[in-house]
Amino acid sequence: MAKKEDVFYTLLKRVAGQLLEAAEEYVSIMRDFPESMARIPRMKVHETTTDELVADIMKRLYTSFITPFEREDISDLALRLDDVVDLMEAVSIRLDLFRLDHMRPEAVEMAELTLKAVTELKGMMELLPRYKKDEGVMMHAIAVSRVEDGADRVYQNAIRRLFSEEDGGKEVTTWLRIYEQMENCLNACDKAAGVVRSVVMKSA
Questions:
Q1: Residues 6 or more apart from 55 whose CB is under 8 A from it?
Q2: Neighbours of 34 (CB within 10 A)
Q3: Fewer CB within 10 A of the terminal residue: the chain, N end or C end?
Q4: What average pLDDT score do residues 8-32 get?
Q5: At 131, which CATH number?
Q6: Which residues form the domain of 173?
Q7: How many domains does the chain fold into?
């Protein structure tokens, strides 16, 4: 009879599943903007669902005597994953708040890289229960870092082109704030992967 999976692994996988759904919505909104404006509120649904899952993890950490790895790492991982969804929602909301009527190609590219990073996070979380034996966990975690490195170059190019094409003012300020949040989102992906990289190294 197969051993039942630890509840923390199950909940973390569900969080990762929500991240992937949110990232797919995020990319869709960015690609189709401004026609996708009406879909922006859907990001709040993903954010709320993720918050509920993370709250469940925290409640169980408080009452559980035994955890599959250090409770501080479980807490940190859950919160880092939650940050990713929060930041995707924050970017999406800003498209509406700032009354934008067009999309810039670098923003779409950064959203697509976020989806790529989240896909690696999902793969990492699926293998996490076997982190002491399966090298795939670390491979996915390292892949997230590589995606984030690539996104840094896109971010820098986006800023460079923004200042070369615009004369300053509201347009530059608006896109700087959006790009910064998109960069923060990709950084959050790498921070989540970093928690797992640390967990694997501590078990080596």
A1: none
A2: 13
A3: N
A4: 98
A5: 1.20.58.220
A6: 7-197
A7: 1
Tokens of 59: 């409640």
Beta-carbon count within 10 A of 196 CB: 25
Asked if the structure places residue 2 within a domain, the reply is no
- Is 1 inside a domain boundary? no
* Closest of 43, 168, 20, 160 to residue 96, by C-alpha: 43
| 88 and 23 Cβ atoms separated by less than 8 Å | yes
Nearest alpha-carbon partner for 189 in 68, 69, 40, 22: 22
User: Amino acid letter at 164?
Assistant: S
Structure tokens at 74: 């479980």
Q: Using N-to-C axis directions, what is the helix angle for 7-32 and 105-127, rounded to 10°? A: 160
Task: Establish if 59 belongs to a structural domain.
Answer: yes
User: What whole-number distance in Å separates Cα of residue 94 and Cα of residue 187?
Assistant: 19
What sign results for the dihedral spanned by CA atoms 83, 84, 87, 93? negative
Nearest to 92 by CA among 18, 41, 45: 41
Residues 79, 54: contact at Cβ < 8 Å?
A: yes
The answer to whether residue 42 sits within a structural domain is yes
pTM (2 d.p.): 0.95
